Description:
The chain is α/β, with parallel strands linked by helices. The protein is built from 15 helices and 17 strands. It has a 7-stranded mixed beta sheet, sandwiched between helices. A 4-stranded mixed beta sheet has the order 1-2-3-15. It binds pyridoxal-5'-phosphate. The site of pyridoxal-5'-phosphate has 15 residues, from α4. This is Aspartate aminotransferase family protein.
Amino acid sequence: MTRLLHRSIGQTLPRAASARGVYITDTEGRQYLDGSGGAAVTSVGHAHPEVLAAMRAQIDNLCYAHTGFFTTDAAEELAEKLVNLAPEPLNHVYLVSGGSEAVEAALKMARQYFVEVGQPQRRHIIARRQSYHGNTIGALATGGNAMRRQQFQPLLPETHHVSPCYAYRDKGNDETPEAYAARLADELEAKIRELGPDSVMAFVAEPVVGATLGAVAAEADYFKRIRKLCDHYGVLLILDEVMCGMGRTGTMFACEQEGITPDILTIAKGLGGGYQPIGAVMLSSAIYESFANGSGLFQHGHTYLGHPVAAAAANKVVEIIARPETLANVNAMGERLQNGLEAALGASPYVGDIRGRGLFRGIELVADREHKTPFDPARKIHAKVKRQAMARGLISYPMGGTIDGIYGDHILLAPPYTIEPAEIDLLIERITQAID
Length: 436
Ligand code: PLP
């Protein structure tokens, strides 16, 4: 019996022993193509020599200095780099240790901002059904995924949920994308009005949904309308790019493709690329100024925030992602993956939708393609596909459950940005076999 508490108790997992490029090898010598980057984490591939060298150099000099006493070159350089890459007015960075911490810090930033500017009554958070923003209690309450929430009720009372932008399921056949986006924005506006416009603090959403629905991007007008609504009602827009940010969708930040900038942006996974646990919150100058001119302190902190080795690793990861050839490869290989999946699976009666952006692709599995009927959730089809893929030497990220209504079985594919054409073709071959 293992003494380690695994998430799925009793499940026997292979032991990962080493990794290089797009492959992980277990202690039995079996090689797995990392088709999902774990959970969309591995951005620049495993054991990238430049990242390893950057970490080694940092380890040789300094492993830890508490941020209550010191700042470090690594943390300062990372913040500078991120601000130079991000759209205005995201010009300050708060470093944390992962995605849930980033979302948690973002929520507290929004709360403190309204206290600093004399609107402490703004406390309600609106997010979307079927969303996931992390597992800490504030992030879990914000997420609208009923399956993850159910055991932990009551959660924070001031969290509310509206419909996600999920055209495959929810857009009417005769509805234009613009009309659909307008309908969703109207729903959000009605929720803001119901709660009382002066009491709403933030709207939280993922630009491209990852962890609950496989790679669902919004319709063209949606985020522009949402940004306008938030501005109109003085609500902060928090975009969660923990999964879809840092080049994953083909641009450094997913929101760039929506033509809008949030007030607060969370990033993690691809930022550290799996080399170190790290996340970050990017905040607008208005929020920064409210702290700087108000209490002079962001009332929040963790022992490991701004960890120098994590920051050094992320510095190099970001530098590699920002090279034009990296994002060019994300876009080219993303297109190859989409086209290949469509060719291999597009006619399958069990594949309802193949979608996504860059190297962030989702396959929605259905029992009946014509009527989009999901599989009986008791069959746990997504978990079976994951097992079948593992048996064929492929890591893919499964999602499923139907507690929120129709939610279905999804497979997320998110390989490292360094993947090559032959590896994309192998990924397609193995996932097709697994689904078959
Ligand atoms: N936000 C989103 C959109 C995520 O996909 C995740 C993790 O899957 C999180 C937050 C939580 O991140 P972490 O698991 O690093 O705490």
